[in-house]
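[job 0412] stage=fold_complex status=start
inputs:
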Amino acid sequence: MQDDSSRKQDDELIARTRAGDASAFDELIVKYSPRLYGLVYNMTSNHEDTNDLMQDIWAKAFRSIAGFRGKSSFYTWIHSIGVNMSINFLKKRNRRYHLSLDDVDANIQNDKEFIELTASSTPVRDADLAELQKRLNEAMQKLSHDHRAVVTMFDIQGMPHAEIGKILGTSEGTVRSRLFYAHRQLQNFLTEFRSQPG
Amino acid sequence: MPEPEINLSALLRLKRYEQPPPGYFDRLLQDVHRRQRTELLRRPLWKIAVDRLQTYFGEHSMGGLSYAGAMLAVLLAGVAGIGLMTPDLETSGPAESRIAENTALVTPTVVRFTLRPRPFSLETARPAPAPPALAGDRMNLPPRYIIDARPVSYEPPSSL
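[job 0412] stage=fold_complex status=done
writing structure:
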């Protein structure tokens, strides 16, 4: 969720971009690309597709920034573009995803959830965790685009329901019901995997 | 012994650590710059204008029908305006033309006509009256010009 100082900074960068300062738009790219990448990657589960989409998204944002009226924050606006372009991409192309679990940030070792999940007192070990993550990614691909989008934004990126509703153009209630359904689907799929012999 | 419940939320939160290869975001900025330059060189101006209009109407939450309605209204206003400004022309031959009585502005792009040559009177500095053969014509008024200047074609040839 964005705070006021961040939003003011964005407003200033947008004003400078409109005035012709290209370096201001570069600052927006640097600021929002990591989060945007996470959103698009978890929608497509493919690095190459994500890279193509990232360029498309920023190209569209650059073309459209003159018409950006500031009714929503730039954060919401750029994420809306990202989600819509990702969903349109997924609808048009039926790609097999190629996950690369090696590209995991080293900071995961310090994550509380990771530590809990891999602690010796629980049955989940590193190898099991990697396998579970792989199955989780497969399960994510089985969700519809809309359900995958809400899971990505809420569970992975930690956005509040209200913000997700603004990005998707739906109500909070719709976001919550989609999340409930998606969680149930994912849980069922992972439980099936865990109960398989061998 | 039953399997412990999978902590789905925790597993999903760990996915935020899945990152692109090192140096990716630096290369992304360069790729975006390259693409911007290419697009600027390639894009026609009319496409840029259409994109700007679409973004404008999109920001104002105008639905597709509202947008189409607005465009139709502009088009109809334009056609009506052209209709009002177009003079009522009657042609009786390839070499003759009529000039509308109340035409305040005549532009070559809207009305095409051939000026009937008239003798020019040096005394009055006005075109001479219409010849008798044309007395019965409904429109026989001298042409009006935006600038009160003689038409070039009416000036007597200068003899040096």
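[job 0412] summary: The longest strand of chain B covers residues 120-121.
[job 0412] exit 0
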